[in-house]
Amino acid sequence: MNAPAQHPPAVRTTCPYCGVGCGVLAKPDGRGGAIIAGDSDHPANFGRLCSKGSALGETLGLGTRLLHPMLRDNGVMVRASWDRALDAVAGGFAKTIAQHGPDSVAFYLSGQLLTEDYYVANKLMKGFIGTANVDTNSRLCMASSVAGHRRVFGADTVPGTYADLDSADLIILVGSNAAWCHPVLYQRMIANKRERGARLIVIDPRRTATAEEADLFLPVAPGMDTALFCGLLVHLADTLAMDYAYIDAHTTGLPDALARAREIAPDVMATAAATGLAPADVARFFALFTATEKTVTCFSQGVNQSAQGTDKVTSIVNCHLATGRIGKPGRGPFSLTGQPNAMGGREVGGLANQLAAHMNFTSGDIDRVGRFWNASRMAQREGLKAVQMFDAISGGEIKALWVMATNPAVSLPNAGFVREALGQLDLLVISDNVASNDTITANAHVLLSAAAWGEKDGTVTNSERRISRQRPFLAMPGEAKPDWWIVTQVARRMGFAEAFGFNQPADVFREHAELSAFENNGTRDFDIGALATLSGDEFNALDPMQWPARVGAPKADTRFFADGKFYTPDGKAKMIAPAMPKPHAAVSDEFPLRLNTGRIRDQWHTMTRTGLSPRLGAHLPEPFVEVHPDDAQGAGLRHHGFARVATPYGACVLKVVVSEGQLRGSLFAPIHWSGETASSGRIGELVGPGTDPFSGQPEAKATPASITVVEFNFRGFALSRGRLALPAQTWWARAAIKAGEGLLLATNDAPSLWRERAAVLFGSDAEIAEYIDEPRGSYRMAAFVEGRLAGCLFIGPAEAAPQWDAVKLLFEAEHMGAAQRRAVLSGKSTDGLADPGPVICACFGIGLNVIRTALADGVAGNVEEIGKSLRAGTNCGSCLPELKRIVADGRIAQTV
Amino acid sequence: MSEPLVIIGNGMATMRLVEELSQRALGRYAIAVIGEEPRLAYNRVLLSSVLAKEVSRGDVELRSQAWYRAHGVSLIYGQRVTAIDADTRRVKLANGGTLPFNKLVLATGSKPIRLNVPGMDLPGVLTFRDLGDVDSIEKAALRNRKAVVIGGGLLGLEAAYGLAKVGLQVSVIHLMDRLMERQLDARGSAMLKAAVEAKGIAVYLNAETAAIKGAQRAQSVVLKDGREIGGDLVVVAAGIRANADLAQGAGLDVGRGIVVDDHMQTGKANIYSIGECAEHRGLCYGLVEPAYEQARVLALHLCGSDARYDGSVLATNLKVSGVSVFSAGDFIGAAGTEQIVLSDPGLGSYKKLVIAQGRLVGAVLFGDTADGLWYLELIRSGASIDAIRGDLMFGRALAERALPKDLAA
Questions:
Q1: What is the DSSP letter of A221?
Q2: Which one of A765, A770, A773, A862 makes the best mutation probe of the B interface by having the most chain B beta carbons within 10 Å?
Q3: Is B341 close to A800, i.e. CB distance below 8 A?
Q4: Which end of chain B is more exposed for a tag (fewer CB within 10 A), N or C?
């Protein structure tokens, strides 16, 4: 008897994608993969997962991984030992600091890092190297919310919790496509709508998937959110709907804020004019907000990614403060963060304009943190925020940069400039888990193989301040190492061994918790002192928990500000008068449109993980631009044709999607494609570098742009087991498929030229099947090696582009029958089509399978009866010998 | 009284005509069939299968003696007709007897062309046309190990296949630069050559026979270019010619064959011709399919219907050397036509469709011929294929699935 197979238990961990922070159960399959399910005990998701989270199991392969450190040697990256690589980093940084001072070096971190990774990097830079040049891709994500919170609350505090979304009667989503970007949280809002009748208002220039469920959709003009909420503040004042007791007791600044609001949007009509909305819709919005005590206003990148993002945040918060709707169940402004651990990074203080643990660059805080760390060289002032940091790199002021877990050559605004700036560094160190990305190919000197999700061990914090464990369920492959370990090793090699004695993630977490409570005494919102004494086992077993977690304080309501106490010097919230709203850059004759950017449902960031999932790749496989029908007509664009989108900073060639949901004069393009996944889809290159004066966050959603038609005569696709090299002039987008890669193509090269290329595309030993309809511009080929489909290439006229769905299925299948092989170049599925088998009776076209079926079903028992029932063999009779054999074989089969 | 109907020739066309008549007008005619071969009608298509010993001689007989008796058909076989008197409506037999007719059908078929080169009369030089030839070849094959087949058309390749199957070392010599040039395009021919060679048969193209050499018996075939190919059995399968001597003697109009109109009637009333010996609209057909069509039309005509034969769209649909081959219409592709090609050498499959003005006008299929009849239908109907052009190559089921229901006939 076989013993029952030993199945390891599922590991509780946290999803590596958005800021919702869903609990995940991962059950290793023993072959390097894992079965993924939602964790029904996790309070962020109660078992739900979105499409991306569900597909995590498809993203665990090692095909694209960096599995050992590498060093540049004579211009080529070669494998190196950890010893050599760490020495190169420590030595390189030390040398640069010695020659040019601490401000000549910088770290660029990521919301993908765990809190422990963040903590060690921040400590090394701000306490021992002596500069605050530590910034992160969170700068692109929620820096305006941080700045807004800090300006109004005196601290970067998210007041509410997800439970508020369950009990609110009105949920307002501003600049948030939550249906695609925070799907699990969005479903929670929809459940409230369905079960409790909550109303949903969506404010977004685009009619997104989120807007489909809205009771009121407000297609606000780009950048005019502030005007809308100023109009609301005026309306609240004019209808005497404010909570004056709360305002008097707990806020300052209302008179100035209101006076400015009256300048910007004095009434409904003025608000409608400024925002481009219908006056009736504006009035309805005002009325709903005014009448609904339990209102939550969620905001995301549409608010944050703006040169006036901080003002947008504070305008929203002003309306909640003016009505006292904050910190109470079902009430409050709510920043939805984009990244899995943007919040953890904020808690650590891993940003250039924060010091550590929600402390700032005040002399008191610098002294306090310096004493806590026993720091040898404390940074004394704020460092350079992301955009400025890369300006300084370009300008030669920063000479050594360490990038961890992010891809700035794709994701930063003016990304072409960024890529060139990277090329000027004396030392570019990259810790990542992929072997290649646009940043690595820009100019890496040292590559450090970092552990990936599923291997990493530590904590993350989600949008509602909930700290959850990311636990490992896979062994670290090759020579991959955790980021906190890598930084610790470099710190030790730089001479700071005493302050970097960490041996476990729990060591780092305890110190982080201890710092949060150090000389806090309720003066700082972020305090998890109660966790500073966790044992290793307790850390491993830590359940998801919300902060604050002060020593000795009861774990009751974790909301902030219900008591009206804020973290400003006077303890009151400071209502802010915003600047006049306008986009950073004006449109012009040359660039008459505005380019909005964002995410799509099934991809994440630069696709280094989601791009590995065939399921996710199937949703929207090409980089595209959405255009309003009128703008499309004006530019001569066709739906599913191609267009060149240009801004003063760069240009991309994208597939055109004509959409009624797009605002006139506004374009939308997703951010995910890079030089690794598309020939011309690096949207970051198009985004202008203008930033918010308070947050330093770039305006990623309103760059002046132009759009012109691009004609490709032919389109098609290729499927391959390995990576294909295509001619430079080909437009392509790469998508994951099972057991290979898919490329979608557009080209002006004639099919005959593709035929020449195809001869060697899949190796010289392949058998090549071909379909050629030259007058119709069609060429299709499939390469077989030992009967297995090794690759295929379909080129057809652009107006009737070949579709790859059916071919992909055949390509992904382990085995292919003869009937399927005969149909593979049709590009169509043979499902549901009877397969008559090879022809036996040529005169009547009767196939072997048909004859066998007739014999098996008893319809015919001999050659004469086959002739009677099927006509086979009754004309020329040349198949009679074969029919005899088939009958004989059938009898043998029956007797066996 | 039944009307006397005499049919000269006892091949496949005659058999079909008799079957059609007995179904439609049993008893209207007193049918007499006169066959020169000393046996019942048989399936000539299976000659190579008999030679290859895949079927027995009995298996290829089309109908039994009893069938003829049961349907009242007089069968006179082993008798040659020597003359026809159209005026007195009598046919003269080799044994001196005569037979009266009211209606006469000439279905005399064709005979192999014998080359006008030295050595054709040597023992060991045979043709491949009837079961008698099969007997001779079988006898010769018992003594000989090497055979040369002259002619790389269908019949020659079939003979070569049969000989190779029974263990002879076979060479095929062909006058043209490719095999079966009348049924296949260059690529199809090349694939056929590869398939034939894979069976161990040597193929010589552009090979014109100059002489057959041998002292007492054939020993080799000498080509015009001087090459000499050894073979003690030489099978000549270099083409056929209509058997029209009788018709000529009777004063009927004879061109390449016996000239007939759309009712299959010769220039003389009540005298008809069908099958390989008939010339309709300038064409003699060498395949069984048109012969069957002609037999059907004639049967209808003889029963009083106004059936007409419009000629056959030439289609080849057969197996040669074990490979399925189909061709129809303008499968080469004249100037101004468009072509779609699908090939998968790994499956031994090649297909070419020829399109003119949005209609299918020709097709050649090698290896996978499942859709041949559908293409033939499309060629014959001249229906527009614009709506299904992209799927046309992949078969009827797939192509018609995409059509609206009312268009998918």
A1: P
A2: A773
A3: no
A4: N
